[in-house]
Amino acid sequence: MYNFDSVLDPEISKLYDWWVKHHKPGVSKTWKKLPKTLQFKFVEVANAIREFRTVKDVSTSPSYSYNVEAVLDAAPPILTNATEDVIQRYQTFVSECRKIKPTHTAQVLFQSISSKPIAFTCFGDLHIGSKNCQYDTLLKDLKTIKETNGFYAVSNGDIINNFIIPSLAKAGRYDMPPDIQWRVAEGLFDSIKEFMLLINSGNHEAWTQELSDVDRLEFLASSLDIPYTGRQRAGFVYFELQGVMYKVLLIHKAPSNNKLNPMYPIKNMFTNFDYDIAIAAHYHNFGAEAFIRYGLLRYASMCGTYKTPDPYTDMLALPNGLPFMPSYILFPKERKIILLTSIQECAKLLTYYRGVK
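The structure assignment produced for this chain is given below.
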């Protein structure tokens, strides 16, 4: 384990080592014996370390790094009167945290200094492992993202089928074994990991966590160095393009379901969350709608699915989903958003706009 400098609080160092090993400081005897002030100090630092990551695009592959300033701002008691050497060693510690503890984040910042637009798509309800998954279409879409300059992606849950709940096991009797599903998913995301901005969890991944208390998706995201929302199952991606900020909200399952008007629950979330684009999934029912709030054009959308109907989706009366994934082109310098329903069409239009001088 990495040790803090002697100037830093030794109790924090010991507690951090325990926390990395067990991931549950709330049940630690060591934790309970600490004074409340030290408990709060540790939580403040630990949360700052894993809360915010930045992505910078300089017309090359994006790189991920911790926002060290946010960490230092959150930890003034520890670094009071610290020398530059101590601060440098603390920054090294931040880097070590990234290697040791999988990162949970609800916020990712994408920054671009390029004068060209970028695009992103939202994958939802892939259901890898199902015999009904449209693998050819999925592979084609992944290849398109990888080969199109300025095209990025986020994932919004239900990556695998994962029918491991005993009461649902019969529904997955023709699926790949769950472990193989995870490995296939990891391989597919590994092929585009440098373009993945955020992974969100869905109820199908949560079944593993429910039965074993192990968040397998956390380790998949960590091994690929992709930010992950964790138990929150919702997150924001901020796109800052030459001073223009776009705020994108991801949530796997919107708070309610309205089959006659599937965009209503997503639009209604604007009551609590300010966003330019909001994307949900879960219901296999692609939809998109533009609407005005506070004088600005906003977008609500829902992912389709790569999974064709099966007895389980029929039992839940889910619609016959199609692999439409909401894809957006975002422009620098002025606020301009273009919504497309097809990854393939989005790639073509993005290539055109990036070629316009």
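Interim note for the steering committee: Residues 107-355 form a domain with the Purple Acid Phosphatase; chain A, domain 2 fold (CATH 3.60.21.10). The chain has two domains: 10-100, 107-355.
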